[in-house]
Amino acid sequence: MSLDRAVMAFAGVMILVSVLLTAYVSPLWMWFTVFIGANLIQSSFTGFCPAAIIFKKLGIKEGTAF
Fold first, then answer.
1. Residue 47 belongs to what domain range?
2. Residues 6+ apart with CB under 8 A from 10
3. Residue 32 DSSP code
4. What does the mean pLDDT of the chain come to?
5. Handedness of CA 8, 56, 44, 31 (dihedral sign)
6. Cα dist. 13→17, 31, 32 in Å?
């Protein structure tokens, strides 16, 4: 799995987890979903993605998603 795909998969899982937490624990978990979305938007403009940095350190190879 390439770094791009790993980051997209991680973001998707985190969004689904936050939606489940919002539905079953507290509506305030919606702010976690907002944070994830804001992080995705800022990383598309700046190229800075904390998840990508962590995945690189874990040894996932860089690549192109498409």
1. 3-57
2. 51, 55
3. H
4. 92
5. positive
6. 6, 16, 12
Rounded Cα gap, residues 42 and 47, in angstroms: 8
Query: Is residue 33's pLDDT more than 90?
Result: yes
Structure tokens at 29: 């978990």
Give residue for tokens 């795909």.
5
The count of C-alpha atoms lying within 13 angstroms of the C-alpha of 58, restricted to the half-sphere facing its C-beta, is 12
Provide the pLDDT for residue 66: 53
In a domain, 48, yes or no: yes
Q: Is 63 domain-assigned?
A: no
| Total count of domains within the chain | 1
Helix (H) or strand (E) holding 9: helix 3-24
H/E run at residue 25: none
